[in-house]
Amino acid sequence: MLASMRPPVPAAPVPATAARLAGVASSPVREILALTERPEVISFAGGLPAPELFDTEGVRAAYDSVLAEGAEQALQYSTTEGSIELRTAIAARLTARGLATGAEDLLITTGSQQALTLVTTALIEPGDVVLVEDPCYLAALQTFGFAGARVVAVPTDDDGIIPEALEEIAAREPVKLLYLVPTFQNPTGRTLPLARRTAVAEAAARHGFWLVEDDPYGELRYDGDRVPWIASARIAADRTVLLGSFSKIMAPGMRLGYLRAPAGLRRPCVIAKQAADLHTSTVDQAAAARYLRDNDLDAHVAMMCGAYKQRRDALLAGLAAALPVGSDWNRPEGGMFVWVSLPEGHDATELLKSAVAHEVAYVPGAPFFVGTPDPGALRLSFTTHAPDEIREGLHRLARALA
User: Fold this and answer.
1) What gap in Å lies between CA 317 and CA 77, rounded to an integer?
2) 326 with 343: CB under 8 angstroms?
3) Distance CA 222, CA 228 (A)
4) For residue range 243-258, what is the model confidence (pLDDT) as tens digits?
5) Whole-structure pTM over 0.70, yes or no?
């Protein structure tokens, strides 16, 4: 009764969110995906694996096995470094592809995006210079933005990062880290040639900065020969971090990635992960390890690559009729993306409104740039839809851009 007679206490405002959020934009890709969730929309926007190609039965059997044979362990806490069985299997796959690796060289992460966050947490202080390709993977820009890094764009051409430009920037800037996706890059689909990879490794050694080599798409090759990882270059072995993922070749919903790093950086990443989530899901790691033991992942990836190659070819075959005269695009040897440049006077961001109205979507290229954006650039993903749907999507895109 007495409490009800008291005058109301004025409520003070809650503290503001952290200042580091101010310079970090939301991902336009995620926002576009939210706008195009209607099933009638044919979306070239998201870099999503085709769900009908998941090995659902094999993955289900792996979960069933680990829960039937060792539920007590699979559902328990585990070590931060990750399952020894899974790390051993990953190490064997990397070694077979020419990069000698032991289980002790690896840290299992909750997707390779977390691996990048852990490396950034362990290395980057506010104001540190981070170099990126221009254009660059959007979520990497978000990660570096949260860390307060000063992000500097390195110019690129049709073969990726330009070594001479990298050398010039590294000579005048106190570079801490260079981040790049050398194989089937996001957003452009480009692959950095071997000579340029060597030049990048030499620049890192000469100027004393870290290299973060992100490789989520490398196994999705449809043409040409595999190019060795930068991490395999001896001159940069002590300063190169390789990020990998099962999202594109097994299932993204399992959220399993890894980083391979020199011991001096791997241990700080372990500590950063302890603060972030203690460890990656025990049961998901156990299921992935069992899947790799009981199934031929390489055969599954080969099946996926056969399907994705047909989808890529269907997209490429229809672009000339779908895009305005004077447009340019590349022909990636793998991965998920084709990079398009519309002719001068076309703004891909403005034209997206018309595209969505015609029930088709893409990602404008401008948000991927750190330097001066190309307003006519756009990214098309070809993996999510079958060839017939891709052809229909291109007909809609042609009407939208007319």
Assistant:
1) 50
2) yes
3) 16
4) 999 999 999 999 999 9
5) yes
